Amino acid sequence: MHKVVSDFSKTVIVSEEGIRLASEPEPKVREKYINELDKVLITKGCLDARIKGLAREIANGFAGVDEITCVVVLKGGMFFAADLIRVLDEQSNLRTRLDFIKCSSYGDRSYSSGNVQMCQLDNIEGKNILLIEDIVDTGGTLRVLQNYLKEKRKNFKTCVLLDKGVASGIELDFIGFRIPRVFVGGYGLDYAGMYRGLPEIVVIKKELLK
Ligand code: IMP
Questions:
Q1: Fewer CB within 10 Å: C terminus or N terminus of the chain?
Q2: Left (φ > 0), alpha (ψ -120 to 50) or beta: where does 185 sit?
Q3: In Å, what is the CA distance from 203 to each residue of 28, 40, 65, 89?
Q4: pTM of the full predicted structure?
Q5: How confident is the model at residue 32, as a pLDDT?
Q6: Can 137 be counted among the known catalytic residues?
Q7: Which atom of ligand 1 is closest in space to residue 182's alpha carbon?
Q8: Tens digit of pLDDT for each residue in 60-73?
Q9: What's the per-residue H, E or C state across 91-149?
């Protein structure tokens, strides 16, 4: 049974059984993915509610700042960033710019190769930066990105949707959900390129993972 959550004003801790809103029925994996996915971990309703909370935290965190440049880590951060940035523009006084950075170390596996490849983004020298990432596991990817971007920053903060709670030595200013150390997909996140289009966060079956 999924746990019913109602407070989305701060990081939500998600246990193995997963979470849903009181208004949502017990979530089920779609039939077409039934052999690949274990369960829905975080429903779309919970993602939407927490993104509103995150936008408030980010606006407070950048108090006194007029404009921020959101640097989205591709590809996984795309869906999360699209929703977050729209809520920021609707609900806060912050003006937003959008840029992207691409970083890949997983390939078609479920663990990091440790080799982070990065591509260049527009000139961000002297800008207020909000780095937007989908998920933190070991922290290796974010460490490389933070070191690279921090040099050029004026004011630098990092927002992640999901944190598996094992990374050390990196600064996470805004965390959506803290999740168990399982491999997840959906809402932009993939395994070997699949599941990005699912509206919720799902757990991929262990026996499928390389
Ligand atoms: P880290 O470098 O070990 O912290 O891993 C971060 C990157 O690995 C993220 O940007 C994701 O692309 C990918 N990743 C880590 N865990 C997962 C997961 O559970 N599902 C999908 N991608 C993941």
A1: N
A2: beta
A3: 12, 6, 38, 31
A4: 0.92
A5: 96
A6: yes
A7: 19
A8: 999 999 999 999 98
A9: HCCCEEEEEEEEEECCCCCCCCCCCCEECCCCCCCCCEEEEEEEEECCCHHHHHHHHHH
